[in-house]
Write a structure and sequence with these properties.
Elements (H helix, E strand, L loop, with lengths): L2 H14 L10 H15 L4 H10 L4 H7 L11 H21 L4 E7 L5 H12 L7 E8 L2 H9 L1 E3 L8 H7 E4 L2 E4 L1 H4 L2 E5 L12 E5 L4 H4 L2 H14 E8 L14 E3 L5 E4 L8
Parallel strand pairs: 1-2, 1-7, 2-6, 7-8
Antiparallel strand pairs: 3-5, 4-5, 8-10, 9-10
Helix pairs in contact: 6-8
């Protein structure tokens, strides 16, 4: 990478509380957005843009938009979904029903175009567990355009390549050159405009919190630890945190969290006096 661009990228990450290491392989997407912004502002170089931001701090909001990475598809990392289907959800439903609970609540952070929350809804709708509990999924993202796309629930065939055939047949209807998620599935999901840095939603505690390839890839360690404190307060005692298969939690957090059947699945360690 051009040294001028790398210097700017490292500076931008520091200003935004992000980790440059997380962006090394995807910075092309970020650079395209910054190029467009340079043209809009009639600036010649990243150094000029840095000076502009330092003189106009409100521009940091746009810089944060430039650093947003949106890579999303249905059933991304299939082993995670298989573990949810075969291990996590059956055990969770059994324990919740034994406690007399009637609703399983999930939160998908950084949901982008909706593929992740819809994947969970499809898994639930297509399996035997839906008769035991109601399912409510809150899906949040900071980009209103992506949320509008998610609410439309229409997708090109390429984004369905990891969808199991039975779910494809049951949960999608073909419309021209696109596939639409059926209303029987979309009814489980509520979309909301919200930044992951904001306070947790009031709908908790959640039994499942999805935060995949967002905070633990791009945020710096201090923000990761702060975020985990929020998550811990929003997670049901029996709940699970779902991250990316290639992600891990900050080292200092491991005394409070334990790994599940896959590297992507985490639960809080119980403290003395916690309810089972």
């Amino acid at each position: 990478m051009n040294p001028e661009w790398e210097e700017f990228a490292c500076w931008g990450c520091r200003r935004l509380g992000l980790r440059w290491e997380g962006f090394r392989h995807v910075f092309g997407q970020v650079r395209k957005r910054i190029y467009r912004r340079l043209r809009q502002l009639d600036l010649a170089s990243p150094a000029d843009y840095r000076r502009f931001i330092e003189n106009n701090p409100w521009e940091l909001d746009h810089l944060a938009f430039c650093f947003r990475i949106t890579i999303s598809r249905f059933f991304r990392e299939r082993p995670v979904w298989e573990a949810l289907e075969k291990v996590v959800l059956p055990e969770l439903v059994q324990r919740l029903t034994a406690r007399g609970e009637r609703t399983l609540r999930a939160w998908s952070l950084g949901c982008a175009s909706g593929e992740e929350p819809y994947s969970l809804a499809m898994l639930w709708h297509s399996g035997p567990l839906r008769s035991a509990l109601a399912l409510r999924i809150l899906a949040t993202d900071v980009d209103p355009r992506l949320l509008e796309r998610a609410a439309r629930a229409r997708y090109p065939q390429g984004s369905l390549r990891e969808v199991p055939d039975p779910i494809l047949q049951r949960c999608f209807s073909k419309q021209a050159d696109q596939f639409r998620v059926r209303p029987a599935v979309t009814r489980y999901v509520q979309f909301r405009l919200q930044n992951w840095r904001d306070h947790s939603p009031e709908e908790g505690p959640f039994h499942l919190i999805f935060c995949r390839y967002l905070v633990f890839t791009y945020a710096d360690i201090a923000l990761q630890e702060q975020f985990l404190e929020e998550v811990a307060a929003s997670l049901h005692p029996l709940g699970w945190l779902v991250v990316g298969q290639k992600e891990t939690l900050p080292a200092r957090a491991l005394v409070q969290w334990k790994q599940g059947p896959l590297p992507a699945l985490w639960q809080r360690r119980r403290k003395e006096g916690d309810q089972p």
